[in-house]
Amino acid sequence: MTENTLLIEQLQDRIDNLEAKIAFQDDVIEQLNIEITAHQESISHLKDQLNLVVDKVKSMNASQIANPEDEAPPPHY
To answer: How far apart are CA 58 and CA 48, in angstroms?
Structure first.
């Protein structure tokens, strides 16, 4: 083998390794993107539920909320 052929083979091996790494990274990035999308949807759903709870609490009358002074003392007193 000539020196040029050996150099070409080494460069081809390096290129093949880089292409394999890029393919792996592309796959990982796609998987992470799918996970992030799922998490964003979950967060959005949880925010909607929290807003509903906050609205319900705000709309409650003061009489619907237990007043600690109105509670009877425990039976052991």
So the answer is: 15
The pLDDT profile of the chain, 77 residues, written as one tens digit per residue, is 799 999 999 999 999 999 999 999 999 999 999 999 999 999 999 999 999 999 998 888 766 666 666 677 777 76
Phi-psi region of 23 (alpha: psi -120 to 50; beta: other; left: phi over 0): alpha
d(CA 67, CA 37): 44
CA 14 to chain centre: 35
DSSP output for 53-74: HHHHHHHS-GGGSPPGGGSPPP
| The two three-digit tokens of residue 4, written as one number | 């040029």
